[in-house]
Structure formats: C-alpha cells, structure tokens
Write a structure and sequence with these properties.
2 helices
C-alpha cells in the first residue's frame, strides 16, 4: 500500500524521558500498522535527535504509565499506548487526523480542534 501524501498529522513514537521504551516486537507492530495507514512515523529515544517539526500537527504516542504529557497549543496531542495493541493504536489516530483536516480546510490553520 503506498503512503498517503495528504496526511496532516506527524506521528511520534516517544521513548524518551518520562516514557517506557516499547518492547521491540510491539514497536515493530505499531509502526507497521501506522505506516500501513499512511502515517509518517518518527521514533524519539533518550538523547536522540530528529528532524525539526514541520507544519503538521503532531500526535505523540508513548507508554507514559497512564499519564500522557499535556502540551500547550493546538498542534500537539499525546496518547498513552501502554496497554493498546497495534491495531488500536493505528485506528485511534483516524479521528484526530480528520479533526486536523477539517480545521486546516476550514480556516487555513493547522492543528487539532
């Protein structure tokens, strides 16, 4: 399945400070499911460097022990995926992606409503 080119959500698998690293097989399954849905995925680990954020809204996924971080502004959302399987992780992003698209189309701004 080809990657979509119209996604307005950047997905980050966060395994840095404040989150537990995902088990390798679980990470593979989650990333595979997200890629199959057409999402671009970035993995962040402790002390790692990644490409700067673009104009896309960002959805941060991690095992935050039940308490995902809260972010200022409309451009970033976090979800604790500590107990979720790969299919649930990927399907859970669709409502957020649609909110981003509606907002982007409605007023020229980006981010979540």
């Amino acid at each position: 399945m080809p990657l979509k080119t119209d996604n307005t959500v950047r997905v980050v698998i966060y395994e840095g400070s404040g989150a537990q690293p995902l088990e390798a097989g679980r990470r593979f399954n989650a990333v595979s499911a997200l890629l199959e849905k057409g999402f671009g995925v970035t993995r962040v680990t402790e002390g790692a460097r990644v490409a700067p954020a673009d104009r896309s809204a960002m959805f941060v996924l991690g095992d935050f022990g039940g308490s995902p971080p809260v972010h200022d502004g409309n451009d970033i959302r976090s979800q604790d995926i500590g107990t979720m399987d790969a299919a649930s992780i990927a399907s859970g992003l669709t409502p957020f992606e649609m909110k981003c698209k509606r907002r982007s189309m409605g007023n020229g701004s980006r981010g979540f409503q």
